[in-house]
Amino acid sequence: MFTSTPTSSPGKILIVDDDDDIRNIYKDYLTANGFKVELATNGQEGLSKILQGGYDLILLDIMMPKIDGLGILRRLKEKPLNQNVYNGPIVVLSALRQDEVYNEALRLGAKGYIVKSDITPKDLLDKVVELLKKP
Length: 135
Hints:
The relative contact order is 0.19. By secondary structure, the chain is α/β, with parallel strands linked by helices. Strand 3 (57-61), helix 3 (69-78) and strand 4 form a beta-alpha-beta unit. The chain is built from 5 helices and 5 strands. The chain has a 5-stranded parallel beta sheet, sandwiched between helices. It has helices at residues 20-32, 43-52, 69-78, 99-107, 121-133, and strands at 12-16, 36-40, 57-61, 90-94, 112-115.
């Protein structure tokens, strides 16, 4: 099913991360704060969901099996989504701050970069709310 407009408030978020603990902590915290959250356990599953659309925000891990986060961003840059498919911004999640990866992610269209070890669930919530307020 395709959607051409954003979902209703407060937002629908896709978390693409192969780490069960990270996915579940973020999902539980965001869901408890009113967000609808869907999960993808690897890059291939994440790309499939992204291509279907309907997300107000996508949190995308860099290092994953099948397709890594930069691979997904490259695919989306090379072959943009159909204009009838809506997705909000993509924010990259990484275990480490790596300037090369950060710069490449931004070049490929990511709207932000979060280092997992530097952020608490509350910080993530604040960042998500901030990103969803931007036009």
